[in-house]
Amino acid sequence: MELADFDREAVLATFLAESEEGLDSMEQALVQMESSPSDPELLHKIFRVAHTLKGNATSLELKELAGFAHVVEDLLDVFREQQAEPTADLISLLLQAVDELRAMVSSAATKPLEPAALTAEQQNLIKKIAREVEKRAKKGATGSGTPGDSSAAAKVDTLPGAGPRTLRADVAKLDHMLNLTGEIVIAQGRLRQMIEKLGTEQGRAILEMHREAERLYMDLQGEVMSIRMVQIGPLFRQFVRSVRDLAKSHGKLARLEVVGEDVQVDTTVLELLKDPLLHLVRNAVDHGLEKPAVRQSRGKNASGLIRLSASHSGGNIVVKLQDDGAGFDRARILEKAKRVGLLSGEDEIRDRDIYDLAFHAGFSTAESVTDLSGRGVGLDVVRRNIDALRGTVEIASTAGKGTTITIRLPLTLAIIEGFSVRVGNETFIVPLEHVTECTDLPAEQSNAEASGILSLRGTALPYVRLRRAFGLAGVTPKKENIVVVKINEFHAGIAVDELLGGMQTVVKPLGRAFRGVQGIAGSTVLGDGRVGLIIDVPSLLRGVMQSSLQAPA
Fold first, then answer.
1. Three-state SS sequence of 109-157
2. For residue 506, what is the enclosing H or E element?
3. What angle do CA 295, 300, 302 make, to 5 degrees?
4. Cross-sheet strand order for the sheet of 392-398
């Protein structure tokens, strides 16, 4: 069959997706092989990826890529035939080969009509691998037996069984499907309000039928959302290589332990979580873990442990990054914060408030600039990305024992359970995951001030008035309500005119002109067709939290 007989672009897209998955799997197996070199299944798994990649590249006439994969396959084949265990140096060599294969696959997908020549680095790498093949093949030539038979048997991939049938789908199409189901929910809400206004016997019968239709639509929406859910394990396992390479380049020993690989999360959340997690992993290796000699002098294992775990908690996913390193230097953070004006006075500050200062842009306690840290860029990026995901991040640390960073995120960014409130003529939605209770604002505190502090069962509760925060017109009513919200362990209140109750909200993105507005996470279409704004609680209350931190204890 000629290449012109099929849609080359579509085939290349499939080739790119399959190759990326295969190379990720190959990389993870190679890193795992360092600690389990005698596991034959890992070698077979790596060989199958190289063999499949070579075959696919050959069929697409990607000669340079196929040749490179063939050389890698030759080296793996020698190990399989001789039943030998690769050394750490050879695993590093194969990891370099994975990096180059990944670059060549990406180049083939972006420039399919331009035959790519091997770079000087790739040519040198091929020569190194070829020398290893030749050297080890000579050693194996003196052996006996018929290893070729077992090798040939191992080359045969098992045929797919009667497992679940799968189909690749474009995420953009899933986004569109979820958007359509959201639009249906909005239209149903408006239709229900119109039917309820009829008030006749026939109207009640129509309303009952409408409720049945709503239940079916909710089932459909649930199915669409479940299709978008993917396991978090593949993302976590990508950092195994990062931890290995970063620690090795800085004279440290470290390993990454993954817990909760089967926890599922929306694919969009997963994509946006990768960057902040990479920053946190790099920070743990550089700031957290000590050098092997220092760790041993403190009675620790020479190799540091970083644990990345995921679990479900209600409608959220909780991701924790723990290390057994030196922990945050409380005194140094406190001294730097006072020097740059983030703190004032000599009052006692809670640990979590001090560690929270590390998220400020430009804040760094590093004494020198390295390739990993020292420029004050990193944790502020983490907070910004987590805020974009409508999540929260919290640090807990014990000097000499390690640090735990906890990230809480919604399972999906498309639909949330919200609590609607009214201020003037405007309706706002507070994500229900932050709401703990509602109460009245005492009459003596009903004034025009933007914020204040009230006593809630004997505890001081800072609050912010939504009318003043967003500059809304109108007169403050005599009776106001407080929505008590929680961000990690910090409680605060939001003063509003009226409480409207809970509702399921379909999140709509804001226009480009409004994306930078502090305190707003998105918008939604209400049951009456008007637009309601969704409150970004952490962003709205950040000023209140900072004021609380700087105020006298």
1. HHCCCCCCCCCHHHHHHHHHHHHHHHHHHHHHHCCCCCHHHHHHHHHCC
2. strand 498-506
3. 60
4. 254-259, 304-313, 316-323, 402-410, 392-398
Q: Which two tokens stand for residue 377?
A: 């860029």
* Tokens 């609050």 found at: 463
Work out the number of other CB atoms within 10 angstroms of the CB of residue 176: 11
Which residue in the block uniquely carries the two structure tokens 């430009």? 362
Task: Report the C-alpha gap between 270 and 262 in whole angstroms.
Answer: 13
Cα–Cα dist 242/246, whole Å: 6
* Residues contacting residue 264 through CB under 8 Å, at least 6 positions apart: 229, 230, 231, 232
129 closest CA partner among 50, 59, 56, 63? 50
Q: Please list, in sequence order, all residues whose beta carbon lies within 8 angstroms of the beta carbon of residue 71, skipping any fewer than 6 positions away.
A: 126, 129, 130, 133
Residues 195/203, Cβ–Cβ less than 8 Å: yes
Cα separation of 328 and 339, whole Å?
18
> What would the two tokens of residue 267 be?
């694919």
Task: Give the containing element (helix H, strand E) for 254.
Answer: strand 254-259
Token representation of residue 491: 């409680």
Q: What pLDDT digit, counting tens, does each position of 133-184 carry?
A: 888 776 655 544 443 343 433 343 443 444 566 777 778 888 888 888 877 8
Residue with tokens 């809400």, as numbered in its chain: 189
- What is d(CA 547, CA 451) in angstroms, rounded to the nearest whole number? 11
Q: Which of 21, 136, 146 is nearest to 74 (CA)?
A: 136
* 168, burial (CB in 10 Å: exposed 0-12, middle 13-18, buried 19+): exposed
Measured on CA atoms in the order 143, 149, 152, 156, is the torsion positive or negative?
A: negative
* The pair of three-digit structure tokens given for residue 115, joined into one six-digit string: 């035959």
Q: Which amino acid is at 530?
A: R
Q: Report yes or no: 412 and 272 within 8 Å, Cβ to Cβ.
A: no
Closest by CA position to 287, among listed 238, 247, 316, 260 = 247
Radius of gyration of the chain (CA): 29
Amino acid at residue number 155: K
- The whole-angstrom separation of Cα 264 and Cα 2 is 42
User: Which residues lie below 8 Å from residue 107, measured CB to CB, with a gap of 6+?
Assistant: 116
> Considering the entire predicted model, what is its pTM?
0.69
> Which residues of the chain fall below pLDDT 70?
1-8, 112-116, 138-165, 314-315, 343-348, 361-378, 445-448, 450, 515-516, 543-553
